[in-house]
Design brief:
The complex is a heterodimer of chains A (1184) and B (104). By secondary structure, chain A is an alpha/beta fold. In chain A, 43% of the residues lie in helices and 13% in strands. Classes of the chains: A alpha/beta (1184), B mainly beta (104).
């Protein structure tokens, strides 16, 4: 007889389960089991993965949950397992989903230790969900050793246990209760001992409750027990040595049937039973298993796409008819007056797309997305479609996307084809500041029964793992923090490997040799790697369904308060769920902000045209994309503006979407884009794949005319012309397949997806070779073309993605070229990019834009563009915002801004009700300097900022008695500020260095001058070259540079040696320094820990306007004694320097090869522009 | 009750149940059905490594409580033996108070 495990936690039971669903299903199948349950704690987090794993190994999935039971006051009384019955058209599964959602109702969205209740159900709730309308139970409840009853028996409180059992039997429907017998063979008296199991078994027999045997599994094999211990410690936030309720033994693994049968015999014998009793226990287990076998398709709607009912979006008739009508309307609007061949082409394309949509029955899907899109635009929120959705003409006609697929040769099959029955992805970027409003609106529009947010699993990475491993071992917190800081982007699983290879871990490695506890720390860190820690709201996924949605997924509150599904993005397709990606993009908010500032500061169209140096046109009216009131419609700005491309070619693209990273600045410098298509190509090229397969160099050479264009075959000229014969886009792969084999584009996309798949690729190759030879292509051409397709693998870029991305890239560059003040104000306000804000402040300084200091009467709660007069006439500056002052509360900010202007400090105290520390900080930051100048002066010298700060630091005078306080509305005498006027000037103004320090402390930006200016004398002594002067140097010159770290990037180690890229800013610009192995060895812990760096290196030219540095050595600039100054001892070589095997291994000082550039892009994380993790794109990657 | 740890030799039945043991050069016969359980260890304090793939025996160890006597006339003693399964090594870890055991 086989044995079915009914109580199994997977790794998706956060901080509890150890093993992944596929390990467990694989092990069960190998034992000959034909079913396996997944009963994660508190939810169905691992369920869909479990289903997939079971289907893969051909066993029946059983679905359930391990849930806390609570009394009426919300106190946990114990835990039970609840299993869904299968084969009942989903009744069991639906009841389980609803039960779990009820268990989470009213719990906190996230965070440990909050005041909200924890997930759980009362017995009455449980009973309500167990029954079905037609009477029979839909769920089976397993009352086990950790239930209230089980714990009573552990204490031998037999009477209480009988009372509880009686109560449960009365409340729960007949046939829905079973006793769960578990023995982890722990010591007598402990939880989960055989004696404990015996008492459970005896009580079950006495009360005629069916008994089943489980092993309450937490790990697949014995080895997982130690990991489970560490997870228990992390869950309780308590060191192992202080944890009172560790698992009593390490027997909670997925035991084989023979072992479970032996266990059954052991328990039954201890209970005084015989072999018939053993048989009864085991066969009851199988009977319960049988009624819980899930049919994923019939019970759970597996692979069955569900979209909202058409009636919800106001369509009563046939959705396809409606879709047709809307497309006609779209043609009239988007393509007014089209005729002839163009119209024919358009009509053919539309008929083609509609044919596929109709065959798949996805008409209402498109209408749904169109509705969401329309709704967002209707809210006045900037939105831009991204992703392969841009490949569809229907999307363009429905205003879902804004790229004309016909103009850019985008292929519908890349988005949707008749061979793929899964719902396609359509992604919409919206202003990040408006995202929550958009979500709320979607809930309102479709109804909360049809909408839920998607969740994401957050797994352990190196730093989190080392922290929790350290906690488990009871290591001091600061020691752990110190170690965690040294960990830099490697998988925790490879900790030991990393210690051997990475220079920054050298010191730690040495420590490990000394300290045995650290050896354990490394082992435990490796064990935690990737294990899920908790779920959180996915940054963009919204799930839309019909009224059955909440029967198909359990939900729980998200951090936002809106409900969130327990399923993540990997679960969407299997569960037939329609997911919309509505991604909040800070850059969109920045752009919206910039546009609003432009309209605010300039009175009308004429002023905007003049300020932005926009073409006035022949009629002198100015461009049509600027409205009379000065509002710019960014979507209508033509894509051929020359100053914009000039700016991009200058490589001064900090702040521009997608092209601000060091690697991209290098690439745009080399490529020198001239038009919009160039931008699409640039964005598509900037990926690890194209770079590694050497697509960039030939592309650049042919583009610049240094090498002739080459096409493998004339038939491919139309396909590859735009990229000079180099295959860059998915679309080109599809067409190449189609041209050579005549397979059709849908089939071609299938082939493309199989490229790089070791198992499937050979069949594709066979087909390709055979079909193209049959069509008469010469063997050597077929060879060449196949090699290209193969090396292209699956990493090329979808041109539709590139086109969608290029739009905001162009728009940000356009704003920077024409309205840099408003653009930078938007960047400071919303902080969208990969760099710290202070670098963008430095960029303003570089551009000569005045950075206006904080002023209590002029600064608002945001960064305002302001007119200032200078010697050269009036210009625009940016006023610093009060909002980013350290420690200033939102309420204070609101009061200050509401009360402006103030005529005295007393006035500010009275009306702004500002706290004393805030007052002092405002003074330190110079917010009162202007007030002081205006009113404080009396005859001679005015008091300094230092005087004022000193004054405000004094103990507060007693408040004026109530009766002398001014009454509401009483006007004060216009005396000016007596307090300021009476200040006796004693101290000098703070030095520039002090001011910058204060600003960095309180604002995190250096506003009055660049931090590096205070190092000027030191830098002069060291002979440091400013960033702006590097471009004038010869390639390979040895220089010293210095600056503040603004970005640090490391590509993933892929067999090869790691390269570290560090960008520093010295106030005149950015220097991008490349550290190869030897330089890393020399720099050691400075690589990641130091803010102010001095770097010696060789210049290397990257393009007409681009120059970088190959680093040789680095120092900590703030550690004066270590610097290579005359008088300082020469720094000894670090003791562990491994001399590279051959010095030739160090790369030459010449220009960076494309391979090296490729590594740089890998580490810039640009893969995330693909569909895999779209929300990361454009968000910050790494910050120093 | 004495608590210590000392290597012993144990002879088991084919099912793995202890039958006899050799302790301090003398041979004891196990006279009653032994009791077996698993007891957890403070592995984080006792072990130097806990690497992934280490397998069984890190977090708990098998304990057998046996009643043994030298010969028909000598007193029965209750002993706790720990069994390190992977290496098949046995250690005597507890000798229970004989008087109390006998009176129980």
């Amino acid at each position: 007889m086989s044995f079915t495990h009914l109580h199994v936690s997977t790794a998706f039971s956060a901080h509890y389960g150890v093993s992944w669903p596929d390990e467990l299903a694989g092990a069960a199948a190998s034992f000959g089991a034909d079913a396996l349950a997944c009963t994660d704690r508190d939810g169905l987090y691992g369920t869909v993965k479990h289903i997939k794993a079971c289907l893969a190994v051909g066993i029946d999935p059983i679905v359930g949950v391990d849930l806390a039971v609570q009394d009426d006051s919300g106190r946990d009384t114990g835990r039970v397992v609840v299993l869904a019955h299968g084969g009942n058209q989903g009744n069991g599964y639906h009841a389980l989903c609803r039960l779990i959602s009820a268990a989470h109702d009213g719990t906190a969205g996230s965070g440990r230790g909050s005041r909200h209740r924890t997930p759980g159900v009362t017995l009455e709730q449980l009973a309500r969900h167990v029954g079905t309308p037609d009477g029979g139970p839909a769920l089976t409840v397993l009352l086990g050793p950790m239930s209230e009853l089980g714990q009573a028996l552990r204490r031998r409180s037999y009477a209480e246990a009988r009372r509880l059992a009686g109560h449960w039997c009365t409340v729960l429907p007949v046939g829905s209760l079973a006793m769960e017998i578990v023995s982890h063979l722990s010591a007598p008296g402990e939880n989960l001992s055989t004696a404990h199991a015996v008492r459970m078994l005896n009580l079950a027999g006495e009360l005629k409750i069916p008994a089943v045997l489980t092993n309450a599994v937490r790990y697949c094999e014995e080895d997982g027990a130690a990991t489970a211990d560490v997870l228990d410690s992390a869950r309780a936030l308590t060191a192992l040595s202080k944890l009172p309720d560790l698992q009593p033994s390490a027997q909670g693994w997925l035991k084989a049937p023979a072992q479970m049968q032996a266990l059954a015999r052991e328990i039954v014998q201890a209970a005084g039973g015989g072999s018939r009793d053993v048989h009864r226990l085991l066969s009851m287990t199988e009977a319960v298993a049988d009624r819980c076998r899930m049919d994923p398709y019939q019970d759970m709607g597996f692979k069955h796409p569900v979209v909202p009912e058409a009636t919800v979006i106001g369509i009563d008739g046939e959705p396809l008819t409606e879709l047709l009508q809307r497309c006609e309307t779209g043609i009239a609007e988007r393509f007014g007056g089209i005729s002839g061949r163009a119209e024919q082409e358009l009509r053919d394309r539309l008929a083609h797309e509609l044919g596929i949509i109709s065959r798949l029955g996805f008409a209402s899907y498109f209408l749904t997305v169109a509705e969401v899109s329309r709704m967002i635009t209707g809210m006045g929120v900037r939105a831009s479609a991204r992703g392969s959705g841009a490949s569809s003409l229907v999307n363009y006609l429905l205003y879902i996307s804004h790229v004309n697929p016909l103009a850019h040769g985008l292929i519908f099959e890349r988005f949707l084809s008749q061979d793929r029955s899964t719902l396609p992805d359509i992604d919409i970027d919206v202003e990040s500041a408006e995202r929550h409003n958009v979500y709320q609106k979607i809930f309102d529009r479709f109804g909360s029964e049809r909408v839920t947010l998607m969740s994401m699993q957050n797994g352990y990475r190196a730093r989190g793992a080392v922290r929790d491993a350290g906690l488990a071992l009871g290591l001091p917190e600061d020691e752990i923090s110190g170690i965690a800081k040294q960990l830099w982007r490697f998988s925790a699983r490879k900790f030991r490997e990393a210690m051997a290879e990475k220079p920054e871990l050298r010191a730690f490695s040495a420590q490990v040799e000394q300290n045995q506890q650290l050896d354990l720390l490394v082992d435990l860190t490796e064990r935690l790697d990737r294990l899920p820690r908790h779920i959180s709201m996915h940054p963009c996924g919204v799930i839309l369904g019909d009224t059955s949605l909440l029967d198909r997924t359990p939900t729980q509150p998200s951090g936002l308060g809106l409900p969130m599904s327990q399923f993540d993005k990997h679960d969407m397709d299997p569960m037939g769920m329609l997911k919309l990606d509505v991604l909040g993009v800070r850059m969109q908010s920045s752009m919206a902000y910039a546009l609003a500032e432009i309209a605010r500061i300039h009175p009308n169209k004429e002023a905007v045209t003049a300020a932005g140096k926009h073409p006035v046109g022949e009629d002198g009216e100015g461009p049509s994309y600027i409205a009379a009131n000065g509002t710019i419609n960014l979507e209508q700005v033509p894509l051929d503006d020359e100053p914009t491309y000039e700016l991009i070619r200058s490589t001064h693209t900090l702040g521009c979407f997608q092209i601000e990273s060091p690697g991209q600045r290098e690439l745009v410098g080399k490529m020198a884009p001239r038009d919009f298509n160039d931008l699409i190509i640039d964005i598509s090229l900037f990926r690890p794949g194209p770079m590694q397969s050497d697509m960039v160099r030939p592309f650049l050479e042919q583009r610049h005319g240094w090498a002739p264009e080459r096409f493998p075959h004339p038939d491919l000229i139309p396909v590859l012309k735009e990229t000079h014969g180099v295959t860059v886009f998915h679309e080109q792969v599809l067409r190449t397949f189609d041209v050579f084999t005549g397979c059709g584009l849908a089939k071609a996309d299938e082939f493309r997806r199989l490229l790089g798949n070791e198992e499937a690729e050979p069949a594709v190759e066979d087909y390709f070779r055979k079909a193209s030879l049959d069509r008469g292509y010469p063997p050597e051409v077929v060879d060449t073309v196949w090699t290209t397709l193969k090396s292209f693998g699956s990493f090329g870029f979808c041109k539709a993605h590139g086109a969608a991305f290029a739009v905001p890239t162009y728009q940000t560059a356009w704003l920077k070229a024409h309205h840099p003040e408003a653009f930078l104000a938007g960047l400071w306000q919303h902080d969208p990019g990969m760099y710290p804000r202070r670098l963008l402040v430095a960029e303003a300084r570089r551009l000569g834009i005045p950075i206006l200091p904080l002023d209590i009467n002029r600064s608002a709660g945001r960064y305002l563009v302001e007119r200032v007069s200078s010697e050269t006439g009036e210009k625009l500056g940016i006023r610093l915002s009060l909002a980013d002052i350290f420690g200033l509360s939102a309420a204070e900010l609101q009061r200050i801004v509401a009360g402006q202007p103030y005529e005295s400090l007393a006035d500010l105290r009275a009306r702004g009700k500002v706290s004393k520390p805030t007052l002092k900080r405002l003074a330190q930051l110079g917010a009162f300097d202007e007030l002081n100048r205006a009113t404080g002066q009396r005859g001679g010298r005015a008091a300094s900022r230092t005087d004022l700060v000193y004054h405000l630091d004094q103990p507060t005078a007693r408040p004026v008695p109530k009766r002398y306080q001014p009454i509401e509305g009483q006007l004060s005498l216009p005396l000016g500020d007596l307090e300021l006027r009476n200040l006796v000037p004693v101290f000098p103004e703070p030095t520039a260095v002090d001011m910058v320090r204060t600003e960095l402390d309180l604002l995190s930006i250096d506003a009055s001058s660049h931090l590096m200016e205070s190092y000027a004398p030191l830098l002069a002594k060291l002979g440091v070259t400013p960033a702006k002067d590097l471009l004038g140097l010869r390639n390979g010159s040895e220089v010293m540079v210095a600056g503040i770290r603004v970005a640090t990037q490391t590509p993933p180690m892929r067999g090869g040696r790691r390269v570290v890229f560090i960008s520093v800013d010295d106030g005149t610009g950015c220097v991008d320094a490349t550290f190869f192995q030897e330089a890393q060895e020399r720099s050691g812990s400075l690589l990641f820990g130091t803010e102010l760096l001095l770097i010696r290196g060789l210049t290397r030219r990257t393009g007409p306007k681009g120059i970088g540095l190959q680093a040789l050595e680095a120092w900590d600039l703030s550690d004066a004694a270590s610097l290579p100054l005359p008088g300082n001892a020469v720094r000894p070589e670090p003791p562990h320097v491994r001399t590279p095997a051959a010095s030739s291994a160090a790369p030459p000082a010449g220009p960076l090869s494309t391979g090296e550039l490729a590594r740089r892009m890998a580490e810039e994380g640009l893969d995330n522009r693909g569909p895999a993790e779209p929300w990361l794109a454009g968000s910050r990657s790494s910050r120093a | 009750m004495g608590v210590f740890s000392e290597a012993v030799e144990v002879i088991c039945s084919p099912a793995g149940q202890p039958l006899r043991l050799r302790w301090q050069g003398r041979s004891y016969r196990i006279v009653a059905e032994p009791v077996r359980w698993y007891e957890r260890r403070k592995w984080w304090a006792e072990e130097l490594r806990a690497e992934r793939g280490r397998g069984a025996g890190l977090v708990d160890h098998e304990i057998w409580r046996v009643q043994a006597r030298l010969n028909g006339r000598s007193q029965i003693r209750t002993l706790d033996l720990s069994h390190q399964v992977d290496a098949d090594r046995w250690r005597l870890i507890r000798v229970h108070d004989a008087v109390r055991e006998l009176s129980a």
